[in-house]
Inverse folding.
């Protein structure tokens, strides 16, 4: 028989007449398990000695045996928390958002370009146009992006496996903060819209998103994320899976404007453009930023 992993007696055969049976040795029992099974057991907090026999050669415990035991063990009850602590389940919207960010960072090769522009003309135009068009700064930025996506085919492309798809329509997502997390309704057919229609359609989609009533929409070419209303000067954001670009819009802030070799007080706006480099290279991304800066410097052209 086996005791602590050693043969006793050292030679097989029947004991000699009158021989005294040796006492059992005490000590830990060595468990026969593969190195990977031991690793899985540590990760799932499974006691290998509780597994009588594994499905491997000679009863060796393998990872499948450990996982079978782990799946049969009910999860531990949450540890007691202090007074006033409230436990709520993670919302499905926030889980979906986290999965999308993780997928983006792991599967999309992306780069970010930034530019800071003189936002004085944009700020003045938005203030003057609001009574007529009921628009915001973000609506104006959306329309500028739509004009450029229309003219730059790379921004209407996205990777599909080992192929690249190019869409005829200009569809742009708008990031909306809701109580459950970030929602991204999509403005479709933007190449046909006026500033008034962009403003009206954006308001409708934001209202629907905050009511949890986002419609099924076609894929977007890119998404515009604006955190300027929170006083954020500039930030980066991941390209959404299934899209090729994302534009992060910061706050219009007071600053020093350089013009004709002179300095003057004014207002600045920083844009950060993230792109999937498989379909949009650095040169095309730079062209986009240059042209959006020119459009926002003379926003009357968008009216």
């Amino acid at each position: 028989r086996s005791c602590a992993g050693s043969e006793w007696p050292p030679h097989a055969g029947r004991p000699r007449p009158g021989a005294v049976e040796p006492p059992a040795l005490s000590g830990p029992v060595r468990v026969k398990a593969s190195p990977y099974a031991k690793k899985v057991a540590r990760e799932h907090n499974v006691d290998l000695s509780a597994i009588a026999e594994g499905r491997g050669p000679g009863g060796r415990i393998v990872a499948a045996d450990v996982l079978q035991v782990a799946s049969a063990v009910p999860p531990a009850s949450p540890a007691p928390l202090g007074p006033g602590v409230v436990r709520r389940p993670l919302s499905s919207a926030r889980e979906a958002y986290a999965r999308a960010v993780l997928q983006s960072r792991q599967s999309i090769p992306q780069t970010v370009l930034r530019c800071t522009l003189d936002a004085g003309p944009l700020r003045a135009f938005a203030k003057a146009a609001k009574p007529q068009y009921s628009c915001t700064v973000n609506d104006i930025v959306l329309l500028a992006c739509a004009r450029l996506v229309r003219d730059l085919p790379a921004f209407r492309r996205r990777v599909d496996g080992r192929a690249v798809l190019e869409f005829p329509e200009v569809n742009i997502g708008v990031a909306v903060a809701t109580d459950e997390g970030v929602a991204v309704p999509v403005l479709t057919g933007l190449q046909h819209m006026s500033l008034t229609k962009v403003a009206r359609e954006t308001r409708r989609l934001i209202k629907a998103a905050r009511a949890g009533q986002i419609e099924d929409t076609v894929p977007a070419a890119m998404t515009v994320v604006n955190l300027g209303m929170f006083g954020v000067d500039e930030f980066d954001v991941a390209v959404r899976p299934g899209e090729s670009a994302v534009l992060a819009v910061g706050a219009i802030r007071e600053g020093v404007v350089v013009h004709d070799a002179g300095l003057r007080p004014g207002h600045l706006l920083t844009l950060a453009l993230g792109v999937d480099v498989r379909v949009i290279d650095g040169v095309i991304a730079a062209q986009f930023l240059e042209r959006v800066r020119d459009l926002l410097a003379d926003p009357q052209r968008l009216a």
Q: What stands out?
A: Residues 156 and 221 are 5 Å apart (CA to CA). The radius of gyration is 32 Å. Residues 1-13, 18-27 have pLDDT under 50 and may be disordered.
